[in-house]
Each structure stands twice: as structure tokens, then as C-alpha cells.
Amino acid sequence: MTDESAFQDSLDELAIQLRPSRALPPSRAELLDRYFGTCAVFADWLEEQGDWRAAGYRWISQYRKVPRCAVSTWEWWRFGESGSATTEDLPTAVWNRLPCTKDQALHTCKGYSTRRDAEWALCKAINSLEADK
User: Fold this and answer.
1) Which of 1, 26, 38, 120 has the fewest CB atoms within 10 Å, i.e. is most exposed?
2) What are the backbone angles phi and psi of residue 53, rounded to the nearest 5°?
3) C-alpha to C-alpha distance for 28 and 3, rounded to whole angstroms
4) How many Å apart are CA 58 and CA 47, to the nearest integer?
5) For residue 105, what are the β-bridge partners?
6) What is the DSSP secondary structure assignment for residue 100, as one 8-state letter?
7) Which 3 state secondary structure label does DSSP give 60?
8) What is the pTM of this model?
């Protein structure tokens, strides 16, 4: 893959297959491995391009996070710092930095119109945290 659209299209397809209603083979674990592997390669490619989102996609791959696909939104959640966190559950420090409009945010959920928008917001949060280091 040599352009962003190929990476994003691949991530879109994997994310759709990860929806709970699509629990058919390949297994969810295999799909997640493919998703996070694609994010890692995408992060490397973004870094080569000098793109600020590289750190965010590397974080997604390392911490194995993917937004939850709801009926009309892609959502990040904050359930706390429990050890049983789901793939869409973010640490409080990251959650607090997620940009969103007031109508997109609930007490424990922030929603975005697309997977790409949700991941863009996460990249912004990660960059904000790294800037504070």
C-alpha cells in the first residue's frame, strides 16, 4: 500500500467485519490482529510522510483500541481503569483529551460520524498528551 486511501479502506473493511452482528469466521481475535497490524504499518507509513497522526495509530496498535460501531456513530467509551477494558474503552487521560462537540458527548461515551473521525480524534488526544511530556 502506497497511499492513505488504501490503508483507510482496509481499516474500514476490517472495522465493519468487527461489528458484533458479524461474528462469523474469521474469528474476532483474528480480525483484531489484522486491524491492529494494519494500524501499525499505517503508523510507520504516516511517520515516513511526516504526518502527525503516526503516534496515534501506533498507540491504537500498541494498546489494541478500536472505536465501537453503533447504529449511526463510532464511539469511544470510558468505563474506568478496570483490568477488563474493552477495545473501545479508553484510559481516562486519553478520554479527557478527546475532542468532540457537546452533542457528541455523553458522560461515558463520545461519538463520531465515521471510524476515521473517531480515530482522528484519538490521534489528537494522543498528540496532546505527548506534547505535555
Assistant:
1) 26
2) -75, -10
3) 27
4) 10
5) 110
6) -
7) helix
8) 0.88
Torsion from C-alpha of 123, 113, 34, 43, nearest 10 degrees: -20
Give me 123's grid cell. 490521534
Quick one: 47 exposed, middle or buried, by C-beta within 10 A (0-12, 13-18, 19+)? Answer: middle
Q: How far is CA 103 from CA 14, 78, 106, 107, in A?
A: 28, 17, 8, 11
Residues in the chain: 133
Whether 60 and 70 have beta carbons less than 8 Å apart is answered as no
Report helix, strand or coil for 89: strand
